[in-house]
Each structure stands twice: as C-alpha cells, then as structure tokens.
User: Which sequence fits this backbone?
C-alpha cells in the first residue's frame, strides 16, 4: 500500500455552538431540559444516500431527572453529508436532523435537533452538531507485526515501547462514518408542542423499604484489586432476580460478556488501540468483593476499545422477596493508557459513577424485564474518593436496586 502524506488538521475546531439552529423561531419551540439519550435502530453511514432516514429510540433512564422524552419513544430524522466541512477538515462529515417524536399510541410530535454526542465513539463532534470522521487510518498490522507484539508481551519494557510507537505508517483512504444499529447517542432537541409523551411502560422509582434495608444491611460496599491490597470500585447497584433473567436482559440491552485476561487478549487489546478499532469482548481487570471474583461481567462498546461501559456482578446469599441479590459495580471507561507500574493497559474512568448507575438501570428497565427500581441511602459512602487507578470518583452514595419481574408477570 502506497504511503501518502496528508496535511495535519488542527485538533481544535473553532466552531460556535449554533443554538439558534436548535431552538427555532421565538415563542414557537421550547428546548428540552437536557440531552435526550437515544439508541439507533438502524445503521447510520456516510456511504448511504444523502437524505436517508434515521430512526432511533429514546433510552432515558428512570433515574434521570427532568427528562424531556421518556424511554421507548421513536425519534425520526434524516442524515446528510456536510461536503463543505468535510473538505475543510479533510475528513468525512455527517449531519443528522431530527424532525419527529412518535409516542406509544402513534401520535407524531414535531421536534428539531441533532446529535450532540456519540457514546464511546472514535469519531468526534463539531460544535454545531456534525459528526466528524477520523483522520486517515493506518492499515491493520501485518502478520509479522502481530508476531512482534506477541514477543513484546513477554517483556514489559518492550510492550511499553510498543505502546508508544506508531505502527508502520501506511494510510488508507479517508475513513467513512459507520455507526451500527444499537449505537447510542445523545440529541439536543426542541419540541414545538408540550403535550405529554407516553412510550415504554413506566418503571417506578421508590425509596427502599425497611425490609429491603434490612436484607442489605452489612453487605460490602467496595471492591478491591485482585490481590486484595487496594480498594477499587464502589458497589453502586444491586440486581434482584434469577441469573438466567439477568443474563437475558443484559444481552437484550446490547451488553456483551468480557474475555478472560490472557496473552492473546492483551495482544488483541493493543491491536485494537493501535488501529482505532473496537474489541467487544475485551477483558476487564480482576476485582474482588469480600474476596470473591464476579459471577458475571458485562460491557458495552461502540467502535473503540478505549471507551466502554462495564459492570461486574457478584453473587450473595441475601434474598429480597425470595429472589437472589447480586451486588454490582458499574463504571464508564473514557480512555486507556499503559501503566509502567502494572505493566499492562488500564482504563481511566468517568468519575461521575452515579451517571453509570442510572445508565445500567435504564438499559435493564427498557428490556421490559424490570418491575421497579429502589434507591437505598448509605451514609457511610464518601462523596469524593479515588479508585485503584487513582481516578477521582464522586457519588451521592445511594445504591440503586433493580428488581426483576417474577416469571410470567406482565409489564404494566
């Protein structure tokens, strides 16, 4: 493959936030209180025809306050290439314009807006709502390079060197934008009417009752590293239900299991990072709760291994309403780096772990398998702390308890 020099593009895009494009004429529309989380129902690609339809579903968590669009509503719009911005940046640029929200009974509500963020994406966003593709990508490593990486894995110093060195500088054509069905985004929307919206069945959120507090009294609140020496992630969720139902719900919500840590997994991790590709079964570090390893580990990625949601669930002997209780720690990985101390790659997390608590609860609730969410106050949890990697963590300390419906119980 021929090496082609390309001009560097400035990393900062001096593009203003075009609020006027979202709010519309004065007095005609009202901006929603916050960004609306959505899940694409069909692929979104720059290779498609200009003006192709875009369809998504709102995935608002029952724990999200002031949400403008409830979970389960259909959001429709169109996608168009931005040729001018694309030429300026020497990258692919794609815009999505949302125009309609459809509620549970089929009523269409007019909206205006666009994608504001893409969850766990290698692509970036311009300030005025355009999706910006990557700079020209290097080709995947050759067979020889892969072998050399395996050899480097045997010596931490070589692996550290490899982590800081670009692979062969072979370039391919300017990458297109290809977001698979299931990709999650957040949209900035305005509505031209304020009629109530009703879409998915409502999952109630209540304060944990006395019997629930008693059932969870004395349970572990924080995991440790695999060697038990360092405190790690806080337990921020509990799941109440049978293991098969839990596994089915996570799979239905688009979560995948994680691979075991190994030489092969570490090498695939490096290749995914070096070439800006995803690794849907990428391993997570070993954490323990009360000395036990997790019974279930799930993650949700998009198209890059550097960013992902992940959760570990530990089994307990506790019961609520006769159903098994699983304690869980959920965090959002937002970057990755090579640790010269631990001699392997480690993720950095978003310290706002309450957001991840809400995200998991929302994903499970939208499957229809959940009958409620409870919140349990825990005074002993500090508002600010640090995890095992040294990342700052902030939380209100509450435990979200997601209860699954008993077998055969219908969603309301």
Assistant:
């Amino acid at each position: 493959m021929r090496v082609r020099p390309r001009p560097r593009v400035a990393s900062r895009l001096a593009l203003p936030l075009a609020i006027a494009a979202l709010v519309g004429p004065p007095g005609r529309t009202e901006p929603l209180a916050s960004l609306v989380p959505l899940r694409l129902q069909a692929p979104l690609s720059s290779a498609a025809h200009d003006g192709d339809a875009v369809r998504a579903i709102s995935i608002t968590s029952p724990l999200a306050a002031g949400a403008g669009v409830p979970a389960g509503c259909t959001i429709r719009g169109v996608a168009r290439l931005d040729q001018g911005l694309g030429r300026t940046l020497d990258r692919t640029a794609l815009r999505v314009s949302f125009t309609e929200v459809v509620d549970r009974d089929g009523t269409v509500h007019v909206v205006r807006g666009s994608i504001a963020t893409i969850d766990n994406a290698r692509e970036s966003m311009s300030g005025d709502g355009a999706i910006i593709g990557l700079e020209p990508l290097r080709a995947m490593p050759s067979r020889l390079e892969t072998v050399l990486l395996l050899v480097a894995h045997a010596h931490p110093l070589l692996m550290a060197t490899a982590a800081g060195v670009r692979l062969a500088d072979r370039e391919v054509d300017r990458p297109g934008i290809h977001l698979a069905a299931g990709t999650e985004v957040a949209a900035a929307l305005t509505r031209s009417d304020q009629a109530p919206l009703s879409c998915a069945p409502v999952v109630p959120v209540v304060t944990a009752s006395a019997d629930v507090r008693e059932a969870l009294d004395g349970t572990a609140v924080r995991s440790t590293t695999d060697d038990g020496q360092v405190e790690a992630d806080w337990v921020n969720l509990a799941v109440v239900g049978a293991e098969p139902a839990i596994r089915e719900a996570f799979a239905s919500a688009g979560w995948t299991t994680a691979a075991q840590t190994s030489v092969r997994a570490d090498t695939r991790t490096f290749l995914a990072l070096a070439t800006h590709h995803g690794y849907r079964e990428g391993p997570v570090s070993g954490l323990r709760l009360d000395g036990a390893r997790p019974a279930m580990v799930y993650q949700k990625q998009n198209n890059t291994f550097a960013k992902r949601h992940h959760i570990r669930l530990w089994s307990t002997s506790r019961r609520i309403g006769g159903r098994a209780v699983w304690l869980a720690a959920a965090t959002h990985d937002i970057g990755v780096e090579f640790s010269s101390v631990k001699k392997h790659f480690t993720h950095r997390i978003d310290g706002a772990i309450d957001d991840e608590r809400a995200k998991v609860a929302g994903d499970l609730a939208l499957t229809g398998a959940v009958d409620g969410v409870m919140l349990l106050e825990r005074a002993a949890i500090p508002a600010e702390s640090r995890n095992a990697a040294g990342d700052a963590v902030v939380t209100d300390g509450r435990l979200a308890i997601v209860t699954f419906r008993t077998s055969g119980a219908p969603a309301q």
